[in-house]
Specification:
Elements lengths: L6 H20 L4 H22 L14 H32 L6 H23 L4 H18 L1 H16 L7 E4 L4 E7 L3 E5 L5 E5 H6 L2 E3 L7 E10 L4 H13 L11 E7 L3 E10 L5 H19 L9 H5 L3 H9 L3
Antiparallel strand pairs: 1-2, 1-5, 2-3, 3-4, 6-8, 7-8
Length: 335
Amino acid sequence: MLDHDLLPLVLINLLGIAGIAIWHLQGRSRPTARLIVQILFFAGMTAVLALAGILPHRVDDDHLRGAAAFLAVSARVLWWTHLAWSLIGFVRIYIVLERRPQEARLLQDLIVAGVYLGVALSILGFVFKAPIGTLVATSGVVAIIFGLALQNTLGDIFSGIALTLGRPFGIGDWIMLGDGTEGRVIENNWRSTFLLTGAHNVVVLPNSALAKIGLTNLSRPDETHQIALLVRIAASHRPQVVEEAMQAALKASTRIVQDPPPIVALKGIDAVAIEVELQFRVTNPAARTPARNEVIDLVHSHCGQSGISLAMPSQSLLYALPAAGDVKLRSSGPL
């Protein structure tokens, strides 16, 4: 090969090294600029390969020796490396544009690992002419051994991938599990999901356990949460007056959502009490306790202003009435 035939290989190496240097200078805080650099240098290297008739997936430079052979190998390795970085750059830019950098981290890591693995095998097979079939078979046996040894960990990993693809919740969502545990999702990684509870504790849930248990996402379609509060009013009052007083109490609340408006539902009546259910929404699950406390205080205040009496609990009537045996005993005694 003549010296001028080495020019494309030298140019590809220079472009590859310059691309790596500029890529690092951009920093991780500028993913768009990094992607532009990757595309430009990768396009330049590809153009040089095409013009020189060099195929990155076929090594036909066996006649080269010394520095020329090294340049031929390094040029192809750099081209494959820039191909991997360009693909990964597109994946990360897509995730940033979708504004789901945390939720899609597991999927991003999986795609990045697949790209690197594919490029590594391509370099070994196409550039260094390694027996890929034997290597894949050997790695398959090793993978089976590791899989048997790490069954629980792999179960958590694949459950995390399934949760990421299914998207039953996202970072920042408030969820409630089937066992009553509830909290806001603050982190989701390969193995576990972290919940910040209302008591300000962090609950760590293995992804495999989370995938098997039922959950309710309280943040979808929005974070407003409905509360039902039961109030018992003495049956001596007119139901319409009771309803108006309860509506006034709910309208005076500043901690509940007024749109949609709260509802006063008369659930039942007997000789002792009128059962009233107050149905109202709060802005998020964490506001339930303050809102409930305010509504109870307002109900008490409006009942006092309207002259409405609360009914005795139904359980207390059992202690107020004499037992049947006591009545017979008193009637059978001497006068």
